[in-house]
Structure formats: C-alpha cells, structure tokens
Amino acid sequence: MTAKQLAGYDRLHNARLNKGTAFTEAERGAFGLEGLLPPAVLSLELQVARRHDEIVRLENDLLKYLVLSDLQARNETLYYSVLMSDPATYMPIVYTPTVGEACQKFGHIFRQPRGIYLPISARGRVKELLSNWPEKDVRFIVVTDGERILGLGDLGAGGMGIPIGKLALCTACAGVPPQSCLPVVIDVGTNNQALIDDPLYLGLRQGRIRGDEYAAFIDEFVAAVQQLYPKCCLQWEDFANINAVPILERYRDEVCTFNDDIQGTAGVALAGILASLRITKKITDQRFLFLGAGSAGTGIAELISQAMARAGMDIHEARHRNALFDVKGLLVTSRDDLADFQRPFAQDRQPISTFVEAIKALKPTGIIGVSGIPKLFTREAVEAMAELNQRPIIFPYSNPTSRSECSAEEAYRWSGGRAIFASGSPFPPVEIGGRKFVPNQGNNVYIFPAMAMAIFATEAERVTDEMFLTAAQAIAEQVSEDNLAAELIYPPRERIFATSLHVAERVAACIFDQGLARVPRPADVGALIRSCVYRPVYPE
After folding, report:
1. Which of 54, 93, 96, 507 is most buried, taking the most CB atoms under 10 A from its CB?
2. Residue 123 pLDDT more than 80?
3. How far is 63 from 69, CA to CA, in rounded Å?
4. In which order are the strands placed within the sheet that holds 181-187?
5. Which of the residues 19, 166, 412, 534 is marked catalytic?
C-alpha cells in the first residue's frame, strides 16, 4: 500500500480528520480517497440532516445513544454538529437519563474505547498510562471511580459513560474544544457482585480498595495530571460521600478542581431558587428541608447559606435555615452519627423521624430531594408543603428520572398546580384541569460546561465557591419575564449555548477579579470567551 493510499485510509478512520461523504473531489484525489467513498459529495449540513433522520426513526433512546457514540468515534465534527444543532433534543440522549442505562449495560454495549482507564493494579505507573493519551495539552478532565453513578449505585468501570457524556456536553453546550477534554475512570474494583459475576464486565474483578491505599492512588493520579497537564482542571464525578468530600477538601486549595455533584448541583439549585424569588419570597425569608444528607445535600445547603449571607444574614443563621433529613431522620445536634460536613446544618431540637413531621415542624418554603431514592416526596409531604406555602418549592433532584423523589405530575397535582417545580432529569409537559405545565429541569448542564469554558479561557489556578455563586446568579439573569410567566425558572434548553457563554463570561470575570487567572485580563472578557469557542466546521 502506498503512503498516499495509507494516508487516505487513515483519514477515514481518524475521528478528528474524517469528513466522510463531505470530502470534496479535490480532497479525494489528493488524499487517496477515490474509490473508498460513494461518489456523491454532501455538505456538513446535509450530513447533519441525514443523521437527524436516522436517529428520529430509532425506537428507543439507548439505540440513539449508541448511534451517536458510534458517530463520535467515526466523525467528531459531524457528531458535535448534530448535538449543537438541537441541544434540547440530544442532551437527554448523550447524558441523563439515557446515560444511566448505558452505564448499567456498559460491558454489553461496549464498541470502541474512549478516554483513559486507570486500574489500581497499575499503581506506580499512573503517569505512564496517562502519557498514552495522544493529546498533550489536556485542559479539562472529568473523572469518576464509578461508585455512585447517578442514583444507580456502584457500576465500577461502567461509570466511564459519565465522563464521556459530561465532556460531550462541555463542547456541545459551551464550545470547549474536544481535543482539550479527557474522560477518566479510576478503577479500584467494585462491590457490585452482579458485575463481578458478569463475564462481559470490563473492570477489575475485585472488591473496592479503601483507606490509605485508595488515597495514595488518588494522590498519584492528581500528581501525574499536574506533571503532564499543568493547566488542567479536574472535575470529580459520582464518588461516594466517603470519598467525595475528603477528595474535594484535600485538593481544592492545591489544584484547579471541583466536584460537580457537590458544587455544580449546588450552583444549579441556587440558580433555580434565585429565579424563583421573582415569584415568591426573598432569599432571607426562605427555609429549605433536604431529603438526603450526603455531599450533594450539604453542598447545596452551604451555597444557599452563602447566598443568604451575601444578602445580609449571619452565616450561622443561614445554615440553620437549611435543614437535612436522612434515613435516620432529621439531622439534630444530639445525634452522634453525623459527619463533620453535616454538623453545620444540625438543628438544635428534638429528633424527628418522619419527613412529613419534619415539614410540619420546620415549615420550609422548599424541599429539595437528593436521596437517590424514588417516590419519597409523598402526596402527604407535597400537600403539607402546599398547606404551608402559597407557592411551595418542590425540587426532586435525584437522577436519573427513575430515581426522582416525585414526578412532575405528582408535584403539580398534589399542590393544586401551585408548586414551583424543578427536577434533575426531564419530565414531559403535564396537563391538569385544562392547564398545561412545562416542568423545569435543574440539570448541572447549566453549570459545568460554562465553568469548563471559563476555566479554559482564563487558565484558572483554582475553583472557588464564589465562582459557583456567580454562575448561579448569571443563570438566573437569563430567565426572562416571559419565561417566568410560563413558570420557567431556568433558561430554555434550546438556548443553552448562549446561556453557557453568558455564564462563562461572568465566571471568567470573577476569576480575573479573584486574581486566579494565568492569562492577562483583556478589555473585553466576553470577546476572550468567544475567541476560545470550538465550532464544528470541517477544515479546508
């Protein structure tokens, strides 16, 4: 085979270089592609239309997910063109809720590797394994150890679907260049016996490593990233509470890093609350009760508390207004089983064992579900909220849809249509008594892609809570009066790209204000953001 023919064949099998049927006649001659493609030359726009037509005919979302995954492996430009042409349609396919099923079936639907797998059996060689990645200027890594995938639990190496999906949305929703992104799975084993017994499981067949050995492996990983990719930001995803909180505390003041389940979820929840303030009470009049007292619940509670403090409230009083409820009941000061990160929110009162009792005693203006357990926002609970509040805030945030604490229809029906509703995964429109409700989706996609773009453009040294407060406010600003009139408290997903760039600009300005940027501050921060945006266009 001649060098010319080899180069042509390689182009067709290189996702970055491949144009498929969009190669021009001149390119086909120059690259040795003649005969390797059908003779018709189609534009990128026609290719996108063809993919739309193919995908819309598929009978379920997992098939659509697989078609898109195959496209990403074959033709990256076309893949992002498809996603960016209709983000509202494709976000639920490449990420939640469909990605949950994809992670559960990862070993059975595996086609082509993507990203880096770091098994603990390779300790001492993490830098060597990371060095096998072809890109040498990685700016954004999304990493999971697969222990707490959405609300689905321990999926081990199958958790790779989460970093892949999140990074696809960083590009599709905020223009982060895909060549700068790297999905990573840290494989320390799995405690899911069904996976260990599955002959098609692709991870280590052993129980999870804990303690000092685990911490040392994480240390080795962070050190290797810093050595190989000094401008890189690490985004932690779907780690169990026992690891998520310590990892964030260990590294947040040392490297550019954040935990999306803790800080991203907090940012998007606060954004919904800030927008809803234009419908209901001011933030210092709010009280929230969380169902679920893990890292996500405490992360949201802390960011809301900081927003209350910004509005003039004492921070301790603000934290007292954010109560948490777990499997053992309300978090109260007399309990001896609280983790350090939970203690600031413990209530100085008698124990309360049921969620409805807690609602009646604390009289919250909003309830926020981060339990990962479906149907815990019962009819009695929602009706109690509606009795206490003219416009009760009902946020069942657990993902995927099958794990939501209640459905949109339940929240609207049980509250007499008065609920201000937002869920983590999408629900279809609801019609009750001739009135149509369009449920809000408070998805982290409003936060992490914009955060990634701001960090990419500024080469930020650290990620701070102030950046998430800024992001939440910037999201809320994008909710128009027309949106509010339609009871929407998040910007329409159809506008996610414009929204993300607005948020990225505001966060980038915050990074410059805090002195955390590694590039000079330009006169126009928005222009800096726009200059960094990836556009899916075939090279000439």
Report:
1. 507
2. yes
3. 10
4. 116-119, 181-187, 140-144, 233-236, 257-259
5. 166
The answer to whether 370 and 292 have CB atoms below 8 angstroms apart is yes
| Chain segment 467-512, per-residue pLDDT in tens | 999 999 999 999 999 999 888 999 998 999 999 999 999 999 999 9
- Cis amide prior to 119 (ω within 30 degrees): no
* 491: CB partners within 8 A, 6+ apart: 446, 475, 478, 479, 483, 499
Q: How far apart, in whole angstroms, are the C-alpha atoms of residue 381 and residue 358?
A: 10
CA 144 to chain centre: 12
Kindly report which listed range (45-54, 66-75, 395-404) carries the lowest average pLDDT score. Answer: 395-404
Instruction: Name the active-site residue from 95, 201, 229, 538.
Output: 95
- For residue 29, what are the contacts with CB-CB under 8 A and spacing of at least 6? none
Q: What stretch of H or E contains 116?
A: strand 116-119
Model confidence pLDDT, tens digit, residues 302-345: 999 999 999 999 999 999 999 999 999 999 999 999 999 999 99
d(CA 18, CA 172): 19
The answer to whether 472 touches 303, Cβ cutoff 8 Å, is yes
> What are the tokens at 137?
């200027």
Cut 0.90: pTM above it? yes
Burial of 211 (0-12, 13-18, 19+ CB in 10 A): exposed
Residue 124's pLDDT is 97
Q: CA-to-CA distance for 447 and 491, rounded, in angstroms?
A: 12
- Residue 95 is a catalytic residue: yes
Q: Is 166 a catalytic residue?
A: yes
* AA identity, residue 480: S
